[in-house]
Write a structure and sequence with these properties.
Elements (H helix, E strand, L loop, with lengths): L1 H12 L2 H4 L3 H4 L43 E9 L14 E5 L2 E2 L4 E6 L7 E2 L27 E7 L6 H14 L8 E7 L11 H9 L19 H9 L3 H14 L7 H37 L5 E8 L7 H17 L1 E7 L18 H6 L1 H22 L5 E2 L5 H10 L3 E8 L9 E8 L5 E4 L2 E3 L9
Parallel strand pairs: 6-7, 6-8, 8-9, 9-10
Antiparallel strand pairs: 1-11, 1-13, 2-3, 2-12, 4-5, 4-11, 12-14
Helix pairs in contact: 4-5, 4-12, 6-8, 7-8, 8-9
């Protein structure tokens, strides 16, 4: 479990996102507090702190927690040509929680000039009902544009060898261009490596070249019984008897067993599925926790913040994963971090690779379950990237082999972002999922917004 410890060490050392920043390069040009618009108060001094690298996180259960009494909904609205629209008002938006219209209690607009560096428009700050203010997003109109920070997060825990190699090529190509005078970047991997925030593109390129595929939680090769995370969820969480019938038939085929009773074979299949399910859940928990920690540390940076996740995605199919995704979105909205995502698989195919063929029973081949499971796994894995992007005002680039063009688009970011807030006063705190819908009173537009959230449970009183 050395990689688990490496990921923990990286979580602890993510203070580099603020602590190791070369302040003379960027911070000296930041507007002084006295120069801020009266409409936009400075961030409170007790805001997010960046712990020293020596402060390691606990090594117990991985939990994402963020206390909120309001829901923040980042929104990008585009016209028919795909351009972001920046002249909408609060009254043109409607937010529905499970079909019920909500009162919008906060409204912020953030715009980016065509030159590439983002610059928030003047608007009142958004403060959650809990009292936790979002990081400042609105300097005075005459102030210099704020610094811009980009973190490239490569998912070496889930990318295949070929996909990671292609991602490294386009990542290094993107970094051939010098950063702007008020830009800095970092290259981070899900397994724990990081370059530190820097303007040195050669250092960033070297960090990209050093990336390697990690195999800690990966389903490699064929076992007997051979059950992946998606199938294990079908068997144990969704109690799919048709899937169980196929899994038992597959086991009897791969083990060449003829004398086993169906009950014994079922027990063996369930045991293998339980082990796979535990590993998959831990992988998902660690992955979402890592993304959340990167977002949290980026929130301490004074300027524009953009996280680009380069990944094939990963399965988030359990109730726990749904809750953790919701908390990541809360955290990103509060920290003013946009999460963009690049599906490094390019055009995804359901065709089985040579290593994936063989070992299936006649029943599985007749029903086509191998292809079905691969298709569902691929589609479900990509959903987490789309949800993180839509829910933070970012962009999800997928189903295209133009990875360089996609990465360049994500690095640029949308021209305008709206953030709406509505209170949770009338919401039952029961941990249930609430589907959101956002409507805009303008014809011919496409709305990209957060899909939903998980209602927080009341905090237990400590005795």
């Amino acid at each position: 479990m050395n990689l688990t410890r490496a990921r923990l060490r990286s979580l602890a050392s993510l203070g580099f996102l603020s602590a190791s920043l070369a302040l003379p390069v960027l911070a000296q040009q930041a507007p002084a507090p006295a120069q801020r618009s009266k409409q936009q108060p400075a961030a409170p001094q007790n805001g997010p702190a960046s712990p020293a690298p020596s402060q390691a996180p606990t090594t117990g259960a991985f939990k994402i927690s963020v206390g909120v009494d309001a829901v923040l909904v980042p929104i990008v609205v585009r016209d028919g040509q795909g351009h972001a629209i920046g002249n909408l008002t609060k009254d043109e938006f409607q937010v529905f929680d499970r079909g019920k219209l909500q009162k919008i209690s906060g409204f912020t607009i953030e715009t980016r000039p065509s030159g590439g560096t983002t610059s928030p428009a003047v608007a009142p700050s958004v403060t959650a009902a809990s009292g936790a203010a979002r990081p400042p997003a609105t300097p005075a109109p005459d102030a210099a544009a704020p610094p811009r920070f980009i973190v490239l997060l490569f998912d070496d825990m889930h990318l295949s060898e070929g996909d990671l190699m292609r991602a490294q090529v386009v990542g290094a190509k993107l970094l051939e261009h010098p950063l702007g005078p008020r830009e800095a970047a970092a290259v981070v991997s899900m397994s724990g490596s990081n370059s530190g925030i820097t303007r040195d593109t050669s250092k960033l390129q070297e960090a990209v070249r050093q990336l390697k595929v990690q195999h800690l939680y990966r389903h490699i090769g064929r076992e007997c019984p051979d059950i992946d995370y998606y199938e294990a969820d079908l068997l144990l969480n969704k109690h799919n008897e048709a899937a169980m019938e196929v899994a038992i038939a597959n086991y009897l085929t791969c083990s060449n067993s003829t004398g086993l009773t169906p009950q014994v074979a079922r027990g063996i299949v369930e045991g293998a599925a339980r082990r796979t399910l535990n590993i998959g859940e831990q992988d998902t928990r660690l992955s979402l926790s890592f993304i959340a920690e990167v977002v949290k540390r980026m929130g301490a940076l004074q300027g524009q913040r953009s996280l680009i996740l380069v990944s094939p995605g990963f399965l988030t199919i359990t109730a726990e994963a749904l809750s953790e995704k919701s908390m990541v979105l809360n955290m990103a909205a509060q920290a003013n971090v946009r999460v963009n995502a690049l599906d490094a698989r390019g055009l995804f195919t359901t065709e089985l690779e040579a290593s994936e063929r063989g070992g299936s029973s006649p029943l599985a081949m007749m029903k086509g379950t191998d292809v079905e499971y691969r298709r569902e796994t691929g589609e479900q894995s990509g959903k987490v990237m789309g949800e993180l992007a839509d829910g933070t005002g970012g962009t999800f680039f997928h189903n295209s082999n133009d990875l360089l063009g996609g990465l360049e688009q994500l690095a640029e970011g949308p021209e305008c972002l709206y953030v709406l807030e509505f209170p949770l006063d009338s919401v039952k705190r029961d941990g249930s999922y609430h589907e959101l819908a956002v409507k805009v009173n303008r014809n011919g537009v496409r709305v990209q917004a957060r899909h939903g959230y998980v209602a927080p449970r009341p905090e237990k009183l400590k005795h």
